[in-house]
Specification:
The complex is a heterodimer of chains A (160) and B (472).
Chain A (H helix, E strand, L loop, with lengths): L6 H10 L10 H12 L4 H11 L3 H10 L11 E6 L2 H5 L2 H12 L12 E6 L11 E3 L2 E3 L4 H13 L2
Parallel strand pairs in A: 1-2
Antiparallel strand pairs in A: 1-3, 3-4
Chain B lengths: L2 E4 L2 E4 L6 H7 L23 E4 L6 E2 L10 E3 L3 H14 L17 H9 L16 E2 L4 E3 L9 H8 L6 E4 L6 E4 L11 H6 L5 E3 L12 E6 L8 E7 L2 E7 L12 H4 L15 E4 L2 E4 L2 H11 L5 E6 L4 H14 L4 E5 L26 H6 L9 E2 L2 E6 L8 E2 L2 E6 L3 H4 L4 E4 L8 E4 L5 E4 L12 H17 L1
Parallel strand pairs in B: 1-5, 16-17, 16-19, 18-20, 19-21, 21-22
Antiparallel strand pairs in B: 1-2, 3-4, 3-5, 6-7, 7-10, 8-9, 11-12, 12-13, 14-15, 14-22, 23-24
Classes of the chains: A alpha+beta (160), B alpha/beta (472).
């Protein structure tokens, strides 16, 4: 089978391996590294990670689908993850979600046709003191309100 | 041996035993879902709560090892409340479709809900729903009923040796399935249905055929190979509906393969010969038993005669045939046949390192212990009589006249000049010896079909015909 992951991936794994008690513990960092390379985790890449770790593909699938940080579908240039867990929910996260859906014209879990935005729901982001929270790509946007959300999306659109 | 107290009863235990096992010995049944004695312990269903003195919270009995002097309460108010809470959670998404569910009557969820749940439900929200999934020829999945005990995942990983069931996503969105809905590959898929504590994984072969509580159960041994897995034939109105494994820690533990599970089908197949036949110019014709026996008797009076005995016959049948052969006349040669390429126990062995053996008949070891020799090459004689239980692979027969005694289907029968239909393993009693030398009893579950006769009956009428012919 032709390898989809680069030499860099395997090099990074070789460096990480001594830090973990066994190879199975490498699953999470391996998936992060693979996602950083491919943008998302297609089934073929999951299979390659499984072969590298030495477990059945099914186990990798279980792990990758358990954590919301792994994308099992391609995502857009900007990935908005709105927390809808208790604290954020009480502070109006549901309104933010439906506003984002209307503004972007997609439902939660979908990507805009131009590939600019992906909207998804996130369980607790661990920033309840500043609820409601959105994770936009790798940044936290805290104390979010509808105006703030609107501004963020507009700025991202103009950044194109 | 160390002792502990369970509900005031003193029980001995060996170190490392969990409270479910120890309590069972004290006569206390602790309700479980995810715990299965043949699988690893995960303690995730939270049904087996017990109260252990000096421990601040309720403990799960499956993952708590008994310890010297431990005082366990399984019926306290806290335990009852804990179990009731667990049941309430487990039923949040369960459709409660027991009237149309195949598992009803033998369902852990039903039993434990009745025994430990609440009669009222506080939940009125919508339940999540999934579409039924076809998981191959053996299993049909209904995810709505699933309580995520993960027994199936662990069975695949730990017993069947293939991690094909997976838990995708998490929490309320969890889905227990195969990767991308692929079909199950394992040859032990029937066990998924046995161990499922709900009606989530149902056996396609049994779906909507019969209610579980109407079935009569007969304990017997599988005849599929020389392993001798213990099983139960479940039948009603003289029809076998399914076979399920019986626990025997020495032989098959809790499992059996699909080949053995569905092996019973040939015994009630349309094409099985159930009345005696004689060859006529235009194919086989039904004939009266006495005519067929008389023809058979006349054919073995002279010439070279070979009796071929299938290693799927019981010890009793094998020795009865040998005894009758020596009484009928001298010089009848006796050879056994069973599986191509496996004629001796020394050639037998595990076929897949799980349960299946290379010898596809149940009594190869018994036949060898009785001192019977296996057939080498083709069966060549003037007259060849083949005695067969139903599974032994027929060798090539070259004879002026040949007959089959036992279970044959129409296609197999066409090679013989006459067929005297016999009893299948579901219809007779007897003993067989498995590959490890363990002797076990097979039991009759259903009445014979048509005018099928047992081997001793056929032999007796042969001997009677001979003595009558001698007097005339």
């Amino acid at each position: 089978m032709e390898k989809l992951l680069s030499q860099k991936f395997y090099q990074a794994m070789n460096e990480l391996e001594p830090r973990y008690p066994n190879k199975k513990a490498l699953i999470l960092p391996a998936l992060h590294q693979a996602q950083a390379e491919c943008g998302w985790l297609p089934p073929e890449v999951l299979a390659e990670v499984a072969a590298y770790i030495g477990v059945h593909e099914a186990q990798i699938r279980e792990v990758a689908s358990f954590y919301t940080m792994y994308n099992l579908k391609p995502v857009g240039k900007n990935h908005l993850r709105i927390c809808t867990n208790v604290a954020c929910c009480l502070r109006g996260a549901d309104d933010l979600m439906s506003y984002a859906e209307r503004k972007l014209g997609i439902a939660c879990g979908e990507t805009t046709p131009d590939g600019m935005f992906t909207l998804s729901e996130e369980e607790c982001l661990g920033a309840c003191t500043t609820a409601p929270v959105m994770m936009a790509n790798d940044d936290y946007v805290e104390n979010l309100d509808i105006n703030g959300l609107n501004d963020w999306i507009e700025r991202a659109k103009n950044d194109r | 041996m160390p002792k502990c107290l369970i509900d005031g009863k003193e029980v001995e235990f060996s170190p490392g035993e969990n409270l479910v096992k120890v309590a069972k010995r004290a006569g206390v049944e602790i309700p479980v879902f995810c715990y299965h004695p043949g699988l690893s312990v995960v303690a995730q269903c939270r049904m087996c709560y017990v109260e252990v003195e000096k421990m601040p919270k309720l403990q799960t009995a499956c993952s708590t090892m008994a310890a010297e002097g431990m005082v366990v309460k399984t019926q306290s108010e806290a335990v009852k409340k804990g179990r009731q809470g667990t049941m309430e959670f487990l039923l949040l998404n369960h459709p409660l479709d027991c009237p149309i569910c195949d598992k009803a009557g033998e369902c852990d969820l039903q039993d434990n809900s009745f025994g430990h749940g609440s009669a009222n439900m506080r939940h009125s929200e919508e339940r999540r729903t999934y579409v039924d999934v076809d998981m191959g020829p053996v299993i049909q999945k209904n995810m709505n009923r699933c309580i995520h005990c993960t027994r199936c995942i662990r069975f695949g990983d730990e017993v069947a040796g293939i991690h094909e069931m997976v838990a995708i996503k998490r929490g309320n969105n969890i889905d227990i399935t195969t990767i991308d809905g692929k079909q199950l590959k394992t040859e032990y898929a029937g066990n998924y249905s046995d161990i499922c504590p709900t009606g989530s994984l149902t056996l396609k072969d049994f779906r909507f055929k019969k209610r579980a509580w109407m079935l009569k159960k007969t304990e017997t041994v599988c005849e599929g190979c020389s392993k001798g897995c213990n099983m139960e034939i479940q039948h009603e109105g003289n029809v076998v509906y399914r076979c399920v494994p019986r626990e025997n820690l020495e032989i098959n533990k809790h499992w059996m393969c699909d080949e053995g599970r569905f092996n019973y089908r040939y015994t009630q197949d349309e094409s099985r010969i159930v009345d005696p036949t004689l060859r006529a110019p235009d194919g086989h014709k039904s004939a009266a038993w006495q005519d067929v026996v008389a023809t058979l008797e006349s054919k073995i009076r002279g010439g070279e005669v070979l009796f071929l005995l299938g290693t799927d016959l019981t010890n009793e049948e094998l020795s009865a045939i040998r005894e009758a052969a020596s009484t009928l006349r001298t010089g009848i040669k006796i050879r056994t046949f069973g599986t191509l390429g496996v004629t001796k126990t020394s050639e037998d062995g595990s076929a897949d390192n799980i349960l299946k053996m290379k010898s596809k008949t149940s009594n190869l070891n018994g036949a060898e212990k009785l001192g019977l020799e296996p057939l080498a090459g083709d069966a060549k004689a003037d007259t060849v009589i083949v005695f067969r239980g139903g599974r032994a692979a027929l060798p090539r027969v070259e004879a002026k006249w040949s007959a089959g005694v036992g279970v044959f289907n129409r296609e197999e029968a066409s090679g013989f000049d006459s067929v005297l239909p016999g009893l299948a393993f579901t219809e007779k009693e007897g003993t067989v010896v498995n590959h490890a030398g363990i002797g076990q009893r097979i039991s009759r579950a259903v009445r014979p079909k048509g005018t099928c006769k047992s081997v001793p009956e056929v032999l007796m009428s042969l001997l009677n015909t001979k003595s009558k012919a001698g007097q005339a």
